[in-house]
Design goal:
The protein is of the alpha/beta class. It has helices spanning 18-26, 51-56, 71-78, 99-102, 119-128, 142-149, 159-165, 206-217, 224-232, 253-266, 269-275; strands at 14-15, 38-43, 60-66, 87-91, 109-113, 135-141, 168-176, 181-182, 189-196. The strands form two sheets. The chain has a seven-stranded mixed beta sheet.
């Protein structure tokens, strides 16, 4: 079979190391209970290096979605015996996919060697289906993985950290070097795992929570009094609270939720309604 050409515009870097592919495949085993089969959605199978281990695993029922039209015939030929049994193949864009239509009920897991140029968008979409995705794992750019897993007080801690950690426990599993890819990327990669935590909902207005987090980190080097002034109004007495002298990376997820409640109480009712 002729190999698929890696396309820069799709952010493609094909994994060559079979051992790493096997390790990535095994990251979803935490979602299995006994002999229970879990539904797995693989994003961007490319040439099927990770896919081969997913379809071989008796715990998994795999669906792979691929946007690259050159990859589709390659994958159809490579996995023709598994199609319709342990593998379903879809041509399309994950970011435009209606996951409720693909999976009308029940839970499913997400995995992939994710395109680096859209990895954050992928995880924000996973967040939209947080009550149906117990585990999401895969490989991304090392810097993004560090931001996702960062704890309060770290330089890497930011918007991605807070919004994802609100609903998922995030593990930075291991680093992957450039030479195991074709073509090799200019950066190191990392394998991460997101496991749904026990928080059912935020104890605050979630829309306002997202706004507060994003606004606070827009000027992360400054005290939050400066960044949040535009949100609450420069004459709002709440700005005198000591919490506004902190920088955003000093606040945990729960502290951002408390701050959101305080801000909501300080806003005029008509502004609150706009944020719901």
């Amino acid at each position: 079979m002729r190999k698929v050409r890696a396309k820069k515009q799709l952010g493609q870097h094909f994994l060559k190391d079979l051992q790493i592919a096997q390790q990535i495949s095994d990251t979803l085993l935490v979602a299995t209970t006994g002999e229970q089969t879990i539904r797995v959605l693989e994003i961007g199978p490319g040439m099927g290096v990770l896919t081969q281990f997913l379809v071989e695993n008796p715990h998994y029922q795999t669906t792979a979605i691929e946007i690259d039209r050159e990859s589709i015939p390659y994958l159809l030929n490579r996995f023709k015996q598994q199609l319709g049994h342990s593998l379903q193949l879809i041509e399309g864009d994950f970011l435009k996919l209606d996951l409720n239509q693909l999976y009308p009920d029940g839970n499913f897991c997400v995995i992939g060697n994710y395109p680096y140029n859209i990895s954050s968008q992928i995880f924000f979409k996973v967040l939209e289906y947080k009550d149906r995705i117990p585990v999401c794992s895969g490989m991304i750019q090392k810097e993004v993985a560090e931001r996702m897993a960062a704890k309060p007080g770290c330089k890497a801690y930011g918007i991605l950290s807070v919004l994802l950690q609100a609903y998922y426990d995030i593990e930075y599993l291991f680093t992957v070097h450039e030479y195991v890819f074709d073509p090799p990327p200019k950066v190191k990669s990392a394998v991460i795992r997101l496991t749904r935590n026990h928080r059912q909902y935020m104890n605050c207005n979630e829309a306002l929570f997202k706004t507060v987090v994003k606004t606070a980190f827009n000027q992360r080097r400054k005290q939050m009094r400066n960044s949040l002034m535009a949100l609450v109004g420069k004459d709002n007495p709440i700005l005198q609270d000591p919490v506004f002298t902190k920088r955003p990376e000093q606040l945990s997820v729960d502290e951002f939720a408390l701050l959101t409640n305080r801000i909501e109480q300080s806003l005029p009712k008509n502004e609150n309604q706009c944020l719901n």
